[in-house]
Design goal:
This protein has 451 residues and is an alpha/beta fold. It has 3 domains: 203 residues, FAD/NAD(P)-binding domain (3-Layer(bba) Sandwich), CATH 3.50.50.60; 114 residues, FAD/NAD(P)-binding domain; 107 residues, 2-Layer Sandwich (Enolase-like, domain 1). It is 32% helix and 26% strand. It is built from 15 helices and 23 strands. The strands form 6 sheets. Strands 1, 2, 3, 4, 5, 6 and 18 form a 7-stranded mixed β-sheet that branches. Strands 19-20-23-22-21 form a 5-stranded antiparallel β-sheet, with helices on both faces. α3 packs antiparallel against α4. The radius of gyration is 24 Å and the shape is globular. The mean pLDDT is 96.
Length: 451
């Protein structure tokens, strides 16, 4: 790489929000470079969604065996942690090289290092200055700082996914996606003591309270110590393990454990970029972008978790990157990002899924609607697999029959919620959904009975 080498586009971040933009520009004949300080692939492919789901796939086997015990299935199941991690790595280890080879084939220059803006059209990488007509920022998010004594002793979710051995006693600080999913993985993998410390009144605050209540009961029944209104005060080394001190309504309490995992949430990963030098404005929620994904520097775009745009979900990042790429190539603000109903799933067992408005949000909007809520452990779909925790809550607007929101817990929820998202995006009413003939018996065929 030559000092002051010039490109048409430099993409900062080799994850979901950046890779597509780089490929679009290269296919159009632009001279493109991609730079990332971490292995290529981004959080989802290497340190988040995909590897996490591979671990969950293993623990699903444990769950199936337990649910069907005494129903004809005789199986003794256990998880060998090292083999499970090796299974996960069979996917993640190959991904960075595969992506880089794809860049090379597309004529994209692949760079490794920390990018830092030194001007409106220059960055510094590994001590060298690179120039570009345009930049696209897709640096994702990182664990937030907690500002508590002993914070440096926390294990991140990235570290957790690489643990060579299963911790016997593990504490998760926070009660969101990461905490609940990893707690379920740990317990089904054989951890003796698993504790979740959530500072609010309930975990998963963005999900329906009734369904979270069902999940919380299932989590406790699994043997996980779920503590709410528990604010962590400090973490201390205690021999080979740790002591976690936290405040509860009953006073201060302590837990001794082998591992403490950071699971309180993530923030935009932008502090190292020196955005001021590039004339790019940002706030608490990330880089300020227009509906066209353009920043306050017209030559620079941003997408994904580092931007103050849509929900921090992988498909959202990919969609925003696609819009940014279209506008980059058009040379003008031609495409505006529009967010359809976006489903979200917590991959615990049972799964919890949601799309659209919550009951509280629908009331705040002054909408008139009926709430269809039922526990469905007695339904065939749950009985068939021995599931004891399943339910739905669907919001149907009075008069129009529009589906305002769908909230599900139980087997099949991860795919049922996608069907609800499609129906809502297409404007299908409850009556139209009732008229659809689904393959039966299937999880999808339950949907017409929910509305």
């Amino acid at each position: 790489m030559n000092e002051n080498e010039s490109f048409d586009l430099i993409v900062i971040g080799a994850g979901t929000g950046g890779n597509g933009v780089a490929r679009m520009a290269a296919a159009a004949g632009w001279k493109v470079a991609v730079v990332d300080s971490l292995p290529y692939g981004g959080t989802c492919a290497l340190r988040g969604c995909d590897p996490k789901k591979m671990l969950i796939a293993v623990t699903e086997g444990v769950d199936w065996a337990r649910n069907l015990n005494g129903k004809g299935l005789e199986a003794q199941t256990s998880v060998k942690w090292s083999d499970m991690i090796a299974f996960k790595r069979s996917f993640t280890d190959a991904m960075p090289g595969r992506i880089e080879a794809g860049f090379e084939k597309a004529g994209i220059v692949a760079l490794h290092g920390q990018a830092r803006f030194t001007g409106r059209e220059t960055i510094e990488v590994n001590g060298e200055t690179l120039r570009a007509r345009h930049f696209h920022i897709a640096t994702g998010a990182r664990p937030m700082y907690l500002n508590i004594p002993g914070e440096e002793m926390l294990t991140t979710s990235t570290d957790f996914l690489e643990l060579p051995d299963r911790p016997d006693r593990v504490v998760f600080v926070g009660g969101g996606f990461i905490a609940m999913e990893f707690a379920h993985i740990s317990k089904r993998a054989g951890a003796r003591e698993v504790t979740v410390l959530e500072m609010m009144e309930r975990p998963l605050g963005n999900f329906d309270p009734d369904l979270v209540g069902i999940l919380s009961e299932a989590t406790t029944n699994l043997g996980i110590d779920l503590r709410t209104e528990a604010k962590v005060l400090r973490i201390e080394k205690d021999g080979p393990g740790f002591t976690v001190t936290h405040e509860t309504p009953e006073g201060k309490q302590t837990i001794n454990c082998d591992l403490v995992v950071h699971a309180t949430g993530r923030v935009p990963n932008i502090e190292h970029l020196n955005l001021e030098a590039a004339g790019v404005e940002y706030g608490r929620n990330g880089i300020k972008v227009s509906p066209y994904m353009r920043t306050t520097n017209p030559a620079i775009f941003a997408a994904g978790d580092c931007a103050d745009s849509g929900p921090n979900l992988t498909p959202v990042s990919a969609n925003e990157g696609r819009i940014a790429g279209k506008n980059l190539l058009a040379g003008k603000d031609e495409r505006e990002v529009n967010y359809p109903p976006i489903p979200s799933v917590v991959f615990t067992l049972p799964q919890v899924a949601s799309v659209g408005l919550s009951v509280a949000a629908a009331r705040d909007k002054g909408l008139a609607f009926d709430t269809h809520f039922e526990k469905t452990a007695g339904w065939y779909s749950s009985l068939r697999v021995g599931a004891r925790c399943s339910a739905y809550k669907i919001l149907v607007e009075n008069g129009t029959g529009r589906i305002l929101g769908a909230h599900l817990i139980g087997p099949g929820a991860e795919e049922q919620i996608n069907l609800f998202a499609m129906a809502m995006g297409a404007g299908l009413t409850a009556n139209r959904i009732k008229g659809i003939i689904f393959a039966y018996p299937s999880y999808a065929s339950d949907i017409s009975s929910m509305v």
